[in-house]
Write a structure and sequence with these properties.
The complex is a heterodimer of chains A (about 170) and B (about 100).
Chain A lengths: L2 H12 L4 E3 L12 H19 L9 H36 L2 H6 L3 H17 L3 H21 L4 E5 L7 E5 L3
Antiparallel strand pairs in A: 2-3
Helix pairs in contact in A: 2-3, 2-6, 3-5, 5-6
Chain B lengths: L4 E7 L12 E5 L13 E6 L2 E13 L3 E5 L9 H4 L2 E2 L3 E9 L2
Antiparallel strand pairs in B: 1-2, 2-7, 3-4, 3-7, 4-5, 5-6
The chains are: A mainly alpha (about 170), B mainly beta (about 100).
């Protein structure tokens, strides 16, 4: 950090510099909570696959151990990625889509998002089906608020994936 | 008469790699008293879509009374490609000094 930069920082304390935006936010207006729900389904699925995986016993051959490790590593990597994806998608909705007026109608939104992000971290860190289920529920709750702000009613239906969990969908007009 | 120099703090990424969020720029508000803006100048302008807000961009094209600006980080920039040209009155000044974070 240069001396002049430090000086500018100091000046900021006395009188803050106005901000010049190198503005990058293209307001594309295209948002959908579905990505976050899909990512949560994947995290559930990975937990299921990990739990179904037969652990190598004391008499397992090196090849069997290697196969087990390979499968486990792949499931874990996918679980990691999709839990992170869910977090990212939730943050986009929160930071870019939701506006102060939405918060007036849905004051629980901030708390919901905060808990969703924490749950996603837990689902990422642990082999924890319950955390994955909680993540899906959180993404469903956010989706149902999202669709209400768009003026759509929602339905809760069984997802057409192997996870088959209840999922919030918009009722397109 | 106003003091010619004014400092701004940069936010967001559209001028990367030239300017990054957190950098300071010192703007010369008299830069265009005796010469015209030129393509390539980095300037602070008033946002045509929200005049109380300032934007920092690079001049891409100059015509009689208007300039077009773009961000150096073209893939992530809202600029004249979206909001069109800016009248010269909207130009606050030319970036004179850049203080890197």
């Amino acid at each position: 950090m240069s001396l002049l930069y430090s000086l500018a920082r100091l000046l900021d304390r006395i009188s803050p510099a106005p901000i010049a935006y190198a503005h990058c936010d293209i307001p594309c207006g295209i948002y959908d909570p579905h990505h976050s729900q899909l990512a949560a389904h994947t995290v559930i699925r990975m937990n299921d696959l990990i739990n179904q995986l037969e652990k190598p016993g004391a008499s397992a051959t090196p090849e069997q151990r290697q196969e087990y490790t390979n499968k486990l590593a792949r499931y874990l990597a996918t679980k990691e990625q999709h839990a992170e994806l869910a977090k990212n998608e939730i943050r986009i909705l929160w930071g870019d889509y939701f506006k102060p007026e939405h918060l007036k109608t849905f004051p629980e939104l901030h708390d919901l998002v905060w808990k969703a992000l924490k749950t996603a971290s837990k689902a990422r860190q642990e082999i924890n089906l319950q955390a994955a289920e909680d993540l899906l529920k959180a993404t469903n709750d956010i989706a149902s608020i999202f669709w209400k702000t768009k003026g759509f009613e929602t339905i809760t239906a069984k997802a057409p994936y192997p996870t088959e969990r209840q999922t919030v969908y918009p009722k397109y007009k | 008469m106003t003091f010619p120099l004014r400092r701004f703090r940069v936010e967001d990424d559209s001028m990367r790699p030239t300017l990054a969020a957190g950098d300071y720029v010192v703007v010369n508000r008299w830069a265009y008293r005796f010469r015209r803006p030129a393509a390539g100048d980095v300037v602070v302008v008033r946002d045509p879509e929200a005049p109380e807000r300032f934007l920092v961009k690079r001049i891409f094209d100059v015509n009689r009374s208007r300039i077009e600006v773009v961000g150096d980080n073209e893939g992530r920039s809202r600029d004249s490609r979206m909001f069109g040209p800016i009248p010269l009155e909207g130009v606050v000044g030319k970036v004179w000094i850049r203080l890197r974070r």
